[in-house]
Amino acid sequence: MNDNNQSSTSYSPPLREGQGGESALRAILFDMDGVLFDSMPGHAYAWAKVMTAYGLPMREEDAFENEGRTGIGTISIFTQRYWGRDATEAEAQELYRRKTIVFNDYQAANGGEAPEMPGAADVLNKVRAHGLMRVLVTGSAQQSLLTRLEKHYPGHFVPQLMVTGDDVRYGKPNPEPYLMALKKAGITADEALVVENAPLGVRAAVAAGIRTIAVNTGPLDPQLLLDEGASWLFPSMQALADSLDELLAQV
Ligand code: CA
Which stretches does DSSP call E strand in 50-196? Predict the structure, then answer.
C-alpha cells in the first residue's frame, strides 16, 4: 500500500462556503477508522488475506474503496461477484470473525494497536472548545476499538452518542447510520457536520443531508471524495485541525 497522500488534486479549504442559515451548529459527527485511528492499513491487510483465502479475491485497494460498509455488506459485495449470491449470515459471521483475528494479529505485530490519527486529538479538542457535541458513527463493531476511544480521547465520546455496526441494518453508504446519529443527538441535519475519510462514508453523510468534511488519510485519489459531494477536503486531520476555527466561523 502507498501511504503517500499527495496528488495533483488541490486541497483548498473551503471548497465552497457552508450554507449558513437559521440553524446553529450543534454537533460534529465523526467516522472512526481512518479519521480517529490510523487503522485502515491493518483492516485492508486483514480483509484481503481472509477473503482471498476463502476464494473471494480481494485486493487491499478494494478494502479502501469499500471502507465504511458493515462487515456483512463488504463480504456480500464479493460473494455476489464471485459466487453470484449474498453471503449467508453464518458465512458472514465466520469470515468477519477470522478477519478480526487477522486484524488483531496484524496490530500485535505492528506496535500492538492502531495508532491515533495525527491531528485527531487537536480536532476533537477544538470541537469541544466550540461547545459542540462529538458523535461517533462507525461501521465497525469491534469492541476493542470502541473501548480505546476513552483511552485515547478521554471525555469526548459517550455511549449514547455512538452509532456502531451493531446498531444499523444497512450501514454506509446508506444514510441510515448518519440519520440514526442525528436522532440520537436530537438534532437536524443542518445542525451537524460530518468528518469522513472514505468515499462511501461521504456518500452516506451527504445522502443524510449533512455537510461533510472529507479528510484523505488513505491512498485513494482525493477526487473520489469530492465526487461523492464533500463540501470541504483536507489532506490530513492535522490540516483540518489547523483550519477548523476558520471553517466553523463560516458555517
Ligand atoms: Ca473511515
Answer: 133-137, 162-163, 192-196
